[in-house]
Amino acid sequence: MFFNQVGKMALGSRLRMLSERMTEDAQLIYQLYQVDLRPKWFPVFYVLSAGQENTITAIATAIGHSHPSVSKIVREMVAGDIVVERKDESDGRKNRLELTPKGRGIAARIQDQYLDVNRAVEEALAQTHHNLWKALEEFEFLLSERSLLRRVQQQKKERESKKVKIVPYEPRYREAFYSLNEEWINTYFKMEKEDLETLGNPKEYILDNGGHILVALYENEPVGVCALIKMKNTGYDFELAKMAVTSRAKGKGIGSLLGRAIVEKARSLGAKKIYLESNTQLTPAINLYQKLGFKKVVGPPSPYERCNIQMELELDNPTR
Amino acid sequence: MFFNQVGKMALGSRLRMLSERMTEDAQLIYQLYQVDLRPKWFPVFYVLSAGQENTITAIATAIGHSHPSVSKIVREMVAGDIVVERKDESDGRKNRLELTPKGRGIAARIQDQYLDVNRAVEEALAQTHHNLWKALEEFEFLLSERSLLRRVQQQKKERESKKVKIVPYEPRYREAFYSLNEEWINTYFKMEKEDLETLGNPKEYILDNGGHILVALYENEPVGVCALIKMKNTGYDFELAKMAVTSRAKGKGIGSLLGRAIVEKARSLGAKKIYLESNTQLTPAINLYQKLGFKKVVGPPSPYERCNIQMELELDNPTR
DNA sequence: ATCATTTACGTAACTAGTTACGTAAATATA
DNA sequence: TATATTTACGTAACTAGTTACGTAAATGAT
Questions:
Q1: What is the CATH number for A235?
Q2: Distance separating alpha carbons of residues A239 and A186, to the nearest angstrom
Q3: A31 touches chain B (CB under 8 A)
Q4: Residue A28, domain member (yes or no)
């Protein structure tokens, strides 16, 4: 059958189809009990007969419809002499609803129908191994905890991050090192004098001074970079800097992979303390640094204008 | 929450709502993968990309939609450059469909999406006790075996048959005995001379000759009757006759209750063999007689025109 | 007391499906 | 070979919901 082939992508369709099948039968069931209601009136009718709510919006929230839907249903029910409307005296906006004598008659007669439908469904469910009613409840709960979208996003991230490789810098990544950094700097700030020099000459400014650069490859394309710059006479061993991930490769966990790799690199070089400068506007970056264990500090004055937060990470007793 | 209060009557609504919630997310998921498809196109797209079917009606049956639905979806997909149409050469009615290069590109890119969605849903389902996917399958199967309507009908019958009382004839049921029989005779045939006499004078024609009459009461109203008429010199003890149930009280199992009661009565009177006459047009009646154990026989000639079948039941060795 | 905001609800237009119906081509039948 | 039936599919109109928007009443803030 179609659904078993397509898989879970079609869960929505499958639910819709079963639902349609049930409402079709519902139509006939009302006839069976000679209850002069249309299935789509039922939720509204139920709330009114239970005496719970009696204004359009309140009913809509109670039954999980939009208010225009309730508005239309009520109009039909008024035409069918099931419900009467009357303006609220103290609040002229509200449309108070009430069952007519005919409506109350139906409410009495429908009790047997409730009973029989409940029993019929329960009898069917009792024959199943996986109870549909309970399954719906559980699934609805799971989705309210975390939406399907977020669950899929996470799967995507997990799958794609497996395709990310972190490799040491090589001269052929010089262009990428520049442009990846330029991309984010120009999005949020503007390039400064220091940027042009350091980014243009990573070998001279970073590697030759005892620093390191890691590059993240996705399908063999450089999509992220990060550098460790040697620091002297500051109490820090390295500055974590020039961290950049292209927006094209978002949602693949690249920042996190790169961050963990660069910290690991520092650790393997015997570093005890690393430092970084950033800007609080860059929330995802700050979140990442916190996850890596960095704590806010007041450090030495920065040459960069865009720096408004400084952080450090002690490696003697790493948090992770 | 609403659904737990209303109970299983709202199963249809609940399914519809979950389905809507899922399709909303689906929209966003397509965006996430930059797949230029609308969720409602998906089933058609899937069938085409799998190379299974490629005409409107065939796709419609495969995915369980109506053909106009597929027709409209295809029109949209053509506008979106996903699909091209071309007339079948040998059969001018058929509209052969094919993915465009763009469509094939999407088919390739969507693979990852299948994977992630499947995993996301399966991961969620794994956290539930009642698996929604399997529950749907089981429930769909149960409904295909016996529809919800029939299940409800049965519950109704069971509940209502408990309110039916079978009591012996009393003079105050004389009117009912006549009119209940008149009702069905006039619906299918017409009243004959014998009917007028026997039905008008049950005491004289039936009871005083050693016969018996049972009356079915529903909410203290007579809704069915049935008689045992003493037979002599025929090899039979009684004729089961004048069985009538008003159409107003259909679907309450009254015929069955009355039938079993009258057979029981005959048995308690020491009868060995009962006889009856009927007409094959009255299928529900014939079915009932068969359930009670009656077998077709060729009996003595009947005084009634409408009789075209004769049956007997041996009580020495009752089937039930 | 006045003005801005929020709330209640109706109307209009849209969506994703449906059924009903018509037409042309293909197939079956006399 | 002519005619009836079936099949494929498009169009129109309907259904049960939605979102978008407007208006009047109530409420809150200055």
A1: 3.40.630.30
A2: 22
A3: no
A4: no
Give all strands (DSSP E) within A68-131, no chain letters.
Answer: 83-87, 95-99
Which pLDDT score, from 0 to 100, does residue A320 have? 44
What backbone torsions phi and psi does residue A201 show, to the nearest 5 degrees?
A: -135, 65
- CB-based contact A317:A288 (threshold 8 Å): no
Q: Is residue B113 helix, strand or coil?
A: helix
The proportion of chain B whose per-residue pLDDT surpasses 70, expressed as a percent, equals: 98
What pTM did the predictor assign?
0.75
> pLDDT at residue B319 above 70?
no
Structural Rg of chain A based on CA atoms: 32
| pLDDT over 50 at B217, yes or no | yes
Nearest to B155 among A2, A116, A135 (CB): A116
Angstrom distance, B69 CA to C17 C1': 7
For chain A, the residue count is 320
B191 interfacial to chain A (CB closer than 8 Å): no
Alpha-carbon span B102 to B106, nearest angstrom = 6
Residue B317's pLDDT is 52
Residue A97 above 90 pLDDT? yes
- Asked if the C-beta of A142 comes within 8 angstroms of chain B's C-beta atoms, the answer is yes
pLDDT grade, residue A317 (50/70/90)? Answer: low
Task: Average the pLDDT over B16-30 and give the result.
Answer: 88
Determine, for residues A18 and B42 on separate chains, whether the beta-carbon distance falls below 8 Å.
no
User: A50 contacts in B (CB within 8 Å)?
Assistant: 5
Residue B9 at interface with chain A, using a CB cutoff of 8 Å = yes
Domain count, chain A: 2
C-alpha span between B225 and B246 (Å, rounded): 9
Nearest to B238 by CA among B203, B207, B201: B207
Domain residues for the domain of A38 are: 33-145
Report whether pLDDT(B12) > 50: yes
The b/e string for A273-300 (b: 16+ C-beta within 10 A; e otherwise) is: bbbbbbbeebeebbebbeebbbeeeebe
Q: Give yes or no for CB of A67 within 7 Å of strand C.
A: yes
Mean pLDDT, residues A19-37 taken together: 88
Tell me if A15 and B19 make a contact (CB, 8 A cut-off): yes
As given in the structure block, the two tokens for residue A62 are: 């109670």
* Rounded CA–C1' distance between A66 and D25, in angstroms: 21
Mean pLDDT of B141-151: 90
Local confidence band at A319 (pLDDT 50, 70, 90 cut-offs):
very low
Residues B191 and B56 placed together within one structural domain of the fold: no
CB contact under 8 A, B151 and A124: yes
The CATH number for A96's domain is 1.10.10.10
pLDDT, average across residues A171-181: 89
Contacts of B255 (CB under 8 A, 6+ apart): B224, B243, B245, B284, B285, B288
In our burial notation (b when 16+ CB lie closer than 10 A, e otherwise), range B222-237 reads bbbbbbbbbbeeeebb
Mean pLDDT of A124-149: 92
